[in-house]
Structure prediction request, 290 residues.
Amino acid sequence: MAGKHTHAQGHRFVHIEDEQGWNWQMTTTQRGNKSTITVGTTQVEMFAGGSGPALVFLHGAGGNAGWQPWHEELSKHYTVYLPSQPGFNGTERPAWVYTITDVAHFNRAMVQQLGLEQYILMGSSMGGWVAAEMAAMCHHNLQGLILVDAAGIKPDKGEIAEIFMVSAQTRLKQRFYDPSQMPNYERYTRALSPEEQVVEHANREMASRLCWRPYLHNPSLPYYLRQMPTPTLIVWGKQDAIVPVECGELFQQALPNATLKVIEHCGHSPAIEKPQEFLHVVTEFLSGLR
Prediction:
């Protein structure tokens, strides 16, 4: 992006206004920069890093976990953007945002504000649902779509698990198939600080507002997607106990140009539970778009 950009050192805040009039506030988080951009009247919290073609990643119902190792890997060849979606983490909910469709419209305005003429869109879980809705609305500047264990389509045979009215321990068991294969599992089991508890509760409240009725799906979405020709990768953990792999098959059936890759011995979050396998299928797909 053009204009004056100063990278922060440590966690010192730097206020930036570039020549297009966007206001940025940046800190360093690993190698990703934390920033805020203005979309309409809403300040959007954003992590970004890397160089190359733009890739926008949309988080799931748990909120934005920040810059992760697999984002760092992708940022070697792509400019990766991780916005906190409206109502999550450091992004306020605009008064008009009530549904996933509203979030999709908001995110499209965000992409426009970022000045992305061509971009790749990736979403996980609830974020995959948002990404699919965005692609159905307008695919003309979309280079590729990646859906990771995405909500949004109701299974015919199985069911999407209850995630809002269960304990944190139950959600963990639902999310990961085999924690013993995760070297950093304690990160997900540690006690949250009071500040983290406030954010986690607010994220859950926003997710339930967006996803409760109908529960984690849009009955019309398969019909929207039939006219969406953009190359699409669908990635699924075979043992996903939240959104069954059947939903991945239904996404593949709905999308005219989609490939489904199923990762064995893996639950709802392949990027965390099977990072090497996840990055392999994603980078293989991305290399085909160049």
Notes: The chain has one domain: 16-287. Residues 122 and 262 are 16 Å apart (CA to CA). The longest strand covers residues 42-50. Strands lie at 14-17, 23-29, 32-39, 42-50, 54-58, 79-83, 119-124, 142-148, 232-237, 258-263.
